[in-house]
Amino acid sequence: MRKPYLAGNWKMNLDRASSLALAGALREHVGQRNDVEVAVAPPFVYLPAVVEALEGSPIRVGSQNMCDQAKGAFTGEVSGAMLRDVGATFAILGHSERRHVYGEPDALVNAKVHHALEVGLDVILCVGETIEEREAGETEKVVRRHLTEGLAGVDGLSKITIAYEPVWAIGTGLNATPEQAGEVHTYLRGVLEGLFGERAAETTRIQYGGSVKPGNIAELMAVDGVDGALVGGASLEAESFAGIVDFDK
What we know:
alpha/beta; 249 residues; four-stranded parallel sheet; 11 helices
């Protein structure tokens, strides 16, 4: 049985005070629950403060991105070791905004995956198609490429979570129907089975992301193969993210 994994990606939002207030409210709401896994990814500059605010809580704290290099003359970048040093336990890699706004190719995403695993960070690897790719019937082709190239050379999936995020549903108010999400999740699990074997594919969690809200999370989570959510805007307020965490109540 795969434990539901609900992660909030705060993106470039909030300030220090509101980050700490949100972390505190989530800490109180989640308590010591162990039936779901909850995580947040604050902006880099607030990571240490949020880690401290959530000390002793089961809520995990991670990074929205990271460099593919360990150290050196890479102005503006943050290494995996630096993230570990301030308490991060995972990194979100290959998010569509990194791919499509900043032009990160699959090879760079793959290098980041390897570096994250080398320093002991877990990974949420994002895959997903644009509206043009979906309308051209290329959804499976695109997500297969993201998956196979993003995981190239990786030995196993024990520290990997996949997040299917159709680009056309991120921040638009649109979301894939449960049927659409289910189809892609099933396809992705099949690709994982071909790459890593049946057991690894069956134990790997695949989140859905893209305009997830308290009003649609239960319907999405009821779909076979949807193991959680990577949440953007709805994770910025305690009440709405709590409604997503409590999807089965």
